[in-house]
Amino acid sequence: MKDFAFDLLRPELIQATGTTLWIADENALQPELGIAPRTNIIVISNRIDLTDTLSEQGWQCRFTDFDFSGYPDGSIDTLIYRISKEKPIVHHVINQAIRLLKPGGQLFIAGLKNEGIKTYLDKAKKRFDGQLQTAKSDKNTWMGILTRPDDCDTELLDDQDYAQLREIASDANYAYSSKPGVFGWNKIDKGSEFLIEQLPLFMERLKQLPNRVLDLGCGYGYLAMNCASDDCFVTATDNNATALQACQDNFTQHNINGEVIPANCAEGISERYPMVICNPPFHQGFSVVGDLTDIFLRATRRRLENDGIAAFVVNLHIPLERKASAHFDRVETIADNGSFKLVLLAKPKR
Asked: Is pTM, for the whole model, over 0.85?
Protein backbone atom coordinates (compact mmCIF):
# COMPACT_ATOMS: atom_id res chain seq x y z
CA MET A 1 0.00 0.00 0.00
CA LYS A 2 1.43 3.34 -1.06
CA ASP A 3 2.37 5.69 1.78
CA PHE A 4 2.17 9.30 0.65
CA ALA A 5 3.74 10.51 3.90
CA PHE A 6 6.85 8.45 3.26
CA ASP A 7 6.96 9.77 -0.31
CA LEU A 8 7.40 13.29 1.09
CA LEU A 9 10.51 12.08 2.94
CA ARG A 10 11.95 10.09 0.06
CA PRO A 11 13.81 13.06 -1.56
CA GLU A 12 15.33 13.93 1.83
CA LEU A 13 16.76 10.42 2.13
CA ILE A 14 18.18 10.65 -1.38
CA GLN A 15 19.84 14.04 -0.90
CA ALA A 16 20.70 14.00 2.82
CA THR A 17 24.17 15.31 3.63
CA GLY A 18 26.22 14.98 6.79
CA THR A 19 25.51 12.49 9.56
CA THR A 20 21.88 11.40 9.13
CA LEU A 21 19.60 9.18 11.21
CA TRP A 22 16.58 7.64 9.53
CA ILE A 23 14.11 6.58 12.22
CA ALA A 24 12.07 3.69 10.84
CA ASP A 25 9.29 1.63 12.37
CA GLU A 26 6.25 -0.20 10.97
CA ASN A 27 4.94 3.03 9.39
CA ALA A 28 8.19 3.83 7.65
CA LEU A 29 8.73 1.35 4.85
CA GLN A 30 6.98 0.58 1.60
CA PRO A 31 7.38 -2.76 -0.20
CA GLU A 32 9.59 -1.17 -2.85
CA LEU A 33 11.90 1.40 -1.26
CA GLY A 34 13.59 2.41 -4.49
CA ILE A 35 16.47 4.25 -2.78
CA ALA A 36 20.10 3.18 -2.92
CA PRO A 37 21.81 2.90 0.48
CA ARG A 38 23.74 5.97 1.58
CA THR A 39 26.94 5.67 3.60
CA ASN A 40 26.12 8.77 5.66
CA ILE A 41 22.71 7.43 6.76
CA ILE A 42 22.17 5.11 9.71
CA VAL A 43 18.77 3.48 10.10
CA ILE A 44 17.38 3.25 13.64
CA SER A 45 14.53 0.73 13.75
CA ASN A 46 12.57 -1.03 16.48
CA ARG A 47 11.42 -3.73 14.07
CA ILE A 48 13.64 -6.73 13.38
CA ASP A 49 11.92 -7.42 10.04
CA LEU A 50 12.64 -3.89 8.79
CA THR A 51 16.19 -4.07 10.12
CA ASP A 52 16.81 -7.35 8.31
CA THR A 53 15.22 -6.14 5.07
CA LEU A 54 17.18 -2.89 4.96
CA SER A 55 20.43 -4.57 6.02
CA GLU A 56 20.07 -7.01 3.12
CA GLN A 57 19.73 -4.00 0.82
CA GLY A 58 23.02 -2.60 2.14
CA TRP A 59 21.82 0.01 4.64
CA GLN A 60 23.61 0.56 7.95
CA CYS A 61 21.04 -0.44 10.58
CA ARG A 62 20.66 -0.55 14.35
CA PHE A 63 17.92 -2.63 15.91
CA THR A 64 16.99 -0.77 19.07
CA ASP A 65 14.11 0.52 21.15
CA PHE A 66 14.70 4.04 19.76
CA ASP A 67 17.60 4.31 22.19
CA PHE A 68 19.73 7.25 21.11
CA SER A 69 21.97 7.26 24.19
CA GLY A 70 24.99 6.20 22.13
CA TYR A 71 24.91 9.46 20.17
CA PRO A 72 26.50 12.55 21.79
CA ASP A 73 24.65 15.83 22.06
CA GLY A 74 24.80 17.89 18.87
CA SER A 75 26.29 15.07 16.77
CA ILE A 76 23.63 14.69 14.05
CA ASP A 77 23.05 16.86 10.99
CA THR A 78 19.69 15.44 9.86
CA LEU A 79 16.90 13.31 11.34
CA ILE A 80 14.29 11.80 9.02
CA TYR A 81 11.13 10.39 10.61
CA ARG A 82 7.80 9.10 9.34
CA ILE A 83 5.67 9.35 12.48
CA SER A 84 4.79 6.24 14.47
CA LYS A 85 1.33 5.07 15.49
CA GLU A 86 1.86 5.73 19.19
CA LYS A 87 2.01 9.24 20.65
CA PRO A 88 4.69 8.51 23.32
CA ILE A 89 7.11 7.31 20.62
CA VAL A 90 6.55 10.42 18.48
CA HIS A 91 7.04 12.69 21.49
CA HIS A 92 10.17 10.74 22.47
CA VAL A 93 11.70 11.16 19.01
CA ILE A 94 10.92 14.90 18.89
CA ASN A 95 12.42 15.38 22.36
CA GLN A 96 15.54 13.45 21.41
CA ALA A 97 15.91 15.40 18.16
CA ILE A 98 16.60 18.59 20.12
CA ARG A 99 19.46 16.91 21.95
CA LEU A 100 20.91 15.09 18.97
CA LEU A 101 20.87 17.77 16.29
CA LYS A 102 23.64 20.27 15.78
CA PRO A 103 22.58 23.93 15.81
CA GLY A 104 21.17 24.42 12.32
CA GLY A 105 20.52 20.68 11.97
CA GLN A 106 17.10 19.63 10.71
CA LEU A 107 14.32 17.22 11.58
CA PHE A 108 12.15 16.12 8.65
CA ILE A 109 8.92 14.64 10.00
CA ALA A 110 5.90 13.48 7.98
CA GLY A 111 2.56 11.79 8.51
CA LEU A 112 -1.14 11.82 7.74
CA LYS A 113 -3.78 14.18 9.09
CA ASN A 114 -5.75 11.34 10.70
CA GLU A 115 -2.55 10.26 12.48
CA GLY A 116 -2.29 13.65 14.14
CA ILE A 117 0.57 15.06 12.07
CA LYS A 118 -0.69 18.65 12.29
CA THR A 119 -0.86 18.47 16.08
CA TYR A 120 2.62 16.95 16.19
CA LEU A 121 3.94 19.74 13.98
CA ASP A 122 2.42 22.38 16.25
CA LYS A 123 4.04 20.74 19.28
CA ALA A 124 7.37 20.29 17.50
CA LYS A 125 7.34 23.95 16.44
CA LYS A 126 7.15 25.00 20.10
CA ARG A 127 9.84 22.47 21.02
CA PHE A 128 12.09 23.90 18.27
CA ASP A 129 11.34 27.46 19.37
CA GLY A 130 9.30 28.31 16.27
CA GLN A 131 11.71 27.02 13.61
CA LEU A 132 9.22 25.22 11.29
CA GLN A 133 8.56 25.03 7.56
CA THR A 134 5.79 22.82 6.15
CA ALA A 135 5.10 21.01 2.90
CA LYS A 136 2.25 18.76 1.84
CA SER A 137 1.35 16.49 -1.04
CA ASP A 138 -2.41 16.83 -0.43
CA LYS A 139 -4.71 18.08 2.31
CA ASN A 140 -4.18 14.89 4.33
CA THR A 141 -0.40 14.45 4.02
CA TRP A 142 2.06 16.83 5.65
CA MET A 143 5.78 17.18 6.24
CA GLY A 144 7.47 19.52 8.67
CA ILE A 145 11.04 20.77 8.43
CA LEU A 146 12.27 21.85 11.85
CA THR A 147 15.60 23.59 12.29
CA ARG A 148 17.51 23.35 15.55
CA PRO A 149 18.18 26.87 16.92
CA ASP A 150 21.47 27.74 18.62
CA ASP A 151 19.78 27.79 22.03
CA CYS A 152 16.78 25.62 22.72
CA ASP A 153 15.57 25.30 26.30
CA THR A 154 11.91 24.62 25.58
CA GLU A 155 9.62 22.33 27.54
CA LEU A 156 9.80 18.58 26.85
CA LEU A 157 6.81 16.90 25.26
CA ASP A 158 5.06 14.30 27.42
CA ASP A 159 6.49 10.95 26.27
CA GLN A 160 5.16 9.05 29.31
CA ASP A 161 8.75 8.48 30.44
CA TYR A 162 9.18 6.38 27.31
CA ALA A 163 12.66 5.05 27.99
CA GLN A 164 11.81 3.50 31.37
CA LEU A 165 10.25 0.14 32.12
CA ARG A 166 7.74 0.25 34.96
CA GLU A 167 5.49 -2.20 36.81
CA ILE A 168 2.10 -2.07 35.11
CA ALA A 169 0.15 -4.96 36.64
CA SER A 170 0.39 -7.95 38.92
CA ASP A 171 -1.51 -11.12 39.74
CA ALA A 172 -1.09 -14.09 42.03
CA ASN A 173 1.92 -15.28 40.02
CA TYR A 174 3.97 -12.28 38.91
CA ALA A 175 4.43 -8.54 38.77
CA TYR A 176 4.74 -7.44 35.14
CA SER A 177 6.90 -4.62 33.81
CA SER A 178 6.29 -2.91 30.50
CA LYS A 179 6.43 0.48 28.79
CA PRO A 180 4.88 2.46 25.94
CA GLY A 181 5.63 0.91 22.56
CA VAL A 182 4.47 -2.59 23.51
CA PHE A 183 1.04 -3.66 22.22
CA GLY A 184 -1.34 -3.44 25.20
CA TRP A 185 1.60 -2.25 27.27
CA ASN A 186 -0.22 -0.98 30.39
CA LYS A 187 -2.49 -3.89 31.30
CA ILE A 188 -2.92 -7.63 31.37
CA ASP A 189 -4.62 -8.44 28.08
CA LYS A 190 -8.04 -10.00 28.72
CA GLY A 191 -7.59 -12.50 25.91
CA SER A 192 -4.22 -13.66 27.20
CA GLU A 193 -5.64 -13.93 30.70
CA PHE A 194 -8.49 -16.09 29.37
CA LEU A 195 -6.02 -18.39 27.61
CA ILE A 196 -3.99 -18.94 30.78
CA GLU A 197 -7.13 -19.55 32.84
CA GLN A 198 -8.19 -22.24 30.38
CA LEU A 199 -4.73 -23.64 29.64
CA PRO A 200 -5.66 -27.06 31.13
CA LEU A 201 -8.21 -27.46 28.30
CA PHE A 202 -5.33 -27.37 25.83
CA MET A 203 -2.99 -29.48 27.92
CA GLU A 204 -5.46 -32.37 28.21
CA ARG A 205 -5.32 -32.73 24.41
CA LEU A 206 -1.61 -33.62 24.66
CA LYS A 207 -0.34 -37.10 25.39
CA GLN A 208 2.13 -35.59 27.83
CA LEU A 209 2.85 -32.14 29.20
CA PRO A 210 5.14 -30.12 26.92
CA ASN A 211 8.76 -29.59 27.93
CA ARG A 212 9.16 -26.75 25.43
CA VAL A 213 6.78 -23.98 24.34
CA LEU A 214 7.12 -21.33 21.63
CA ASP A 215 5.38 -17.97 22.15
CA LEU A 216 4.80 -16.12 18.87
CA GLY A 217 4.49 -12.36 19.42
CA CYS A 218 5.33 -12.43 23.12
CA GLY A 219 4.79 -8.76 23.96
CA TYR A 220 6.04 -8.11 27.48
CA GLY A 221 5.87 -11.85 28.19
CA TYR A 222 2.59 -12.57 29.99
CA LEU A 223 1.76 -15.80 28.15
CA ALA A 224 5.33 -17.07 28.14
CA MET A 225 5.84 -16.43 31.85
CA ASN A 226 2.66 -18.26 32.78
CA CYS A 227 3.48 -21.27 30.60
CA ALA A 228 7.05 -21.67 31.87
CA SER A 229 7.96 -23.97 34.73
CA ASP A 230 10.94 -25.93 36.01
CA ASP A 231 9.93 -28.66 33.56
CA CYS A 232 8.97 -26.44 30.65
CA PHE A 233 11.38 -24.13 28.78
CA VAL A 234 9.71 -21.27 26.91
CA THR A 235 11.10 -19.51 23.83
CA ALA A 236 9.53 -16.05 23.56
CA THR A 237 9.77 -14.23 20.22
CA ASP A 238 8.70 -10.85 18.92
CA ASN A 239 9.74 -8.51 16.11
CA ASN A 240 9.52 -5.39 18.29
CA ALA A 241 12.55 -4.21 20.26
CA THR A 242 10.42 -2.61 22.97
CA ALA A 243 8.50 -5.82 23.60
CA LEU A 244 11.71 -7.86 23.68
CA GLN A 245 13.29 -5.50 26.20
CA ALA A 246 10.26 -5.72 28.49
CA CYS A 247 9.97 -9.49 28.13
CA GLN A 248 13.66 -10.04 28.89
CA ASP A 249 13.40 -7.82 31.96
CA ASN A 250 10.42 -9.83 33.22
CA PHE A 251 12.21 -13.12 32.55
CA THR A 252 15.26 -11.90 34.45
CA GLN A 253 13.31 -10.46 37.38
CA HIS A 254 11.34 -13.67 37.91
CA ASN A 255 13.97 -16.26 36.89
CA ILE A 256 11.77 -17.60 34.10
CA ASN A 257 12.95 -20.84 32.54
CA GLY A 258 13.22 -19.55 29.01
CA GLU A 259 14.84 -17.34 26.39
CA VAL A 260 13.83 -14.20 24.51
CA ILE A 261 14.68 -14.09 20.81
CA PRO A 262 14.17 -11.31 18.24
CA ALA A 263 12.34 -12.98 15.37
CA ASN A 264 9.60 -12.01 12.96
CA CYS A 265 7.07 -14.83 13.40
CA ALA A 266 9.85 -17.30 14.32
CA GLU A 267 11.98 -16.59 11.25
CA GLY A 268 15.44 -18.00 11.87
CA ILE A 269 14.17 -20.56 14.38
CA SER A 270 14.58 -24.13 13.13
CA GLU A 271 13.25 -26.18 16.03
CA ARG A 272 9.78 -27.66 16.24
CA TYR A 273 7.85 -27.47 19.48
CA PRO A 274 5.22 -29.63 21.16
CA MET A 275 3.25 -26.49 21.91
CA VAL A 276 2.91 -23.03 20.35
CA ILE A 277 1.01 -20.22 22.06
CA CYS A 278 -0.15 -17.03 20.42
CA ASN A 279 -2.30 -13.97 21.07
CA PRO A 280 -1.94 -12.49 17.57
CA PRO A 281 -2.22 -8.72 16.96
CA PHE A 282 -5.32 -8.86 14.82
CA HIS A 283 -8.02 -7.89 17.26
CA GLN A 284 -10.62 -5.17 16.79
CA GLY A 285 -9.46 -2.82 14.07
CA PHE A 286 -7.10 -5.29 12.42
CA SER A 287 -7.97 -7.19 9.27
CA VAL A 288 -8.05 -10.96 9.43
CA VAL A 289 -8.14 -11.37 5.67
CA GLY A 290 -4.69 -10.00 5.00
CA ASP A 291 -1.22 -11.43 5.05
CA LEU A 292 -0.71 -10.99 8.81
CA THR A 293 -3.06 -13.85 9.68
CA ASP A 294 -1.43 -16.20 7.20
CA ILE A 295 2.05 -15.25 8.43
CA PHE A 296 1.20 -16.29 12.00
CA LEU A 297 -0.53 -19.47 10.87
CA ARG A 298 2.28 -20.48 8.49
CA ALA A 299 4.85 -19.88 11.21
CA THR A 300 2.86 -22.02 13.62
CA ARG A 301 2.52 -24.81 11.07
CA ARG A 302 6.27 -24.83 10.42
CA ARG A 303 7.29 -24.76 14.08
CA LEU A 304 4.73 -27.20 15.51
CA GLU A 305 5.59 -30.86 16.00
CA ASN A 306 3.38 -33.34 14.14
CA ASP A 307 1.65 -34.43 17.35
CA GLY A 308 1.82 -31.02 19.03
CA ILE A 309 -0.88 -28.40 19.56
CA ALA A 310 -1.10 -24.65 19.12
CA ALA A 311 -3.18 -22.48 21.45
CA PHE A 312 -4.55 -19.28 19.90
CA VAL A 313 -6.75 -16.66 21.51
CA VAL A 314 -8.61 -14.19 19.30
CA ASN A 315 -11.62 -11.89 19.46
CA LEU A 316 -14.87 -13.78 19.04
CA HIS A 317 -15.75 -12.09 15.74
CA ILE A 318 -12.56 -13.15 13.97
CA PRO A 319 -13.00 -16.19 11.66
CA LEU A 320 -9.60 -17.67 12.46
CA GLU A 321 -10.89 -21.21 11.99
CA ARG A 322 -11.55 -20.64 8.31
CA LYS A 323 -8.04 -19.36 7.66
CA ALA A 324 -6.43 -22.02 9.86
CA SER A 325 -8.08 -24.92 8.02
CA ALA A 326 -5.70 -24.35 5.10
CA HIS A 327 -2.75 -25.05 7.41
CA PHE A 328 -4.03 -27.62 9.92
CA ASP A 329 -6.12 -30.77 9.66
CA ARG A 330 -7.52 -30.20 13.13
CA VAL A 331 -9.03 -26.85 14.04
CA GLU A 332 -11.23 -26.70 17.12
CA THR A 333 -12.76 -23.86 19.11
CA ILE A 334 -12.59 -25.19 22.66
CA ALA A 335 -13.96 -22.25 24.69
CA ASP A 336 -15.26 -18.70 24.53
CA ASN A 337 -16.24 -16.15 27.14
CA GLY A 338 -18.43 -13.89 25.03
CA SER A 339 -15.50 -11.68 24.02
CA PHE A 340 -12.66 -14.05 23.17
CA LYS A 341 -12.39 -17.59 21.89
CA LEU A 342 -9.69 -20.19 22.30
CA VAL A 343 -8.78 -22.09 19.14
CA LEU A 344 -6.76 -25.29 19.15
CA LEU A 345 -4.70 -26.09 16.05
CA ALA A 346 -3.17 -29.53 15.50
CA LYS A 347 -1.97 -31.91 12.78
CA PRO A 348 -0.03 -29.35 10.71
CA LYS A 349 -0.21 -29.86 6.96
CA ARG A 350 3.27 -30.47 5.55
From this structure: yes
Q: Which pLDDT tens digit goes with each residue over 227-252?
A: 999 999 999 999 999 999 999 999 99
Q: How far apart are CA 190 and CA 342, in angstroms?
A: 12
Burial class (CB in 10 A: 0-12, 13-18, 19+), 311: buried
Residue 312, beta-bridge partner list: 278, 343
Helices (H), the chain: 4-15, 48-56, 87-100, 117-127, 190-197, 199-203, 222-227, 241-253, 291-303, 320-324
Out of 116, 147, 178, a domain closes at 147
Consecutive 10-residue runs of the chain (350 residues): their mean pLDDT?
87 95 80 81 95 92 95 97 95 96 96 96 93 91 95 89 96 96 93 97 90 97 97 97 98 98 93 96 48 86 96 93 95 96 96
Per-residue confidence (pLDDT) for residue 282, from 0 to 100: 63
Q: DSSP character for 229? A: B
Q: Tell me: do 76 and 193 sit in the same domain.
A: no
Pairing type for strands 233-238 and 258-262 reads parallel
Q: Which residue range(s) make up the domain with 273?
A: 166-348
Give pLDDT, residue 79. Answer: 98
Distance CA 97, CA 182 (A): 22
Residue 158 lies in a domain: no
Q: Using H for helix, E for strand and C for coil, what is the string for 97-136?
A: HHHHEEEEEEEEEEEEHHHCHHHHHHHHHHHCCCCEEEEE
Could you tell me if 57 and 131 lie in one domain? Answer: yes
The amino acid at residue 168 is I
Please report, for residues 25, 199, 244, 301, 349, the alpha-carbon distance to residue 240 in angstroms, rounded to integers and kept in the order given.
9, 26, 6, 22, 29
Domain boundary among 147, 179, 209: 147
d(CA 217, CA 195): 15
285 contact partners, CB below 8 Å, separation of at least 6:
none
